Amino acid sequence: MDFNVKNTGKPYIVPGFQGVMDLDLTCVDKKHHEELVKQHIKDIDDYKLEQATMKPRLRYENTILKAMRIHKIEEDALKLRSAQEKERIARQDKDRYERYQRTVMLKELTGVSENISK
Questions:
Q1: Is this structure's pTM higher than 0.85?
Q2: Fewer CB within 10 Å: C terminus or N terminus of the chain?
Q3: CA distance 70 to 56
């Protein structure tokens, strides 16, 4: 089988299914595409049959996909906590800045009143 490594054409990727990864035929000679696509489809059908014979708790959607959903939920929760923490820090910084500005204004006012009384 010849591989055309210098192929600059558009990518040719045949989608996979759950536990069967995508088939990238971008750098494969076109004369082999039909045979490889047929084999890929057969692999997907075999995979589906294999999954159907497994106990439900061992199937891909109940193991890998479940873990991926849990990771997604945890990632979303982490992003939310991070955003809340950034907001909390921004509020604290704003409050600190406003208190600083008030003290500066008070010092200026007391300095002006002292100059007036002299």
A1: no
A2: C
A3: 18
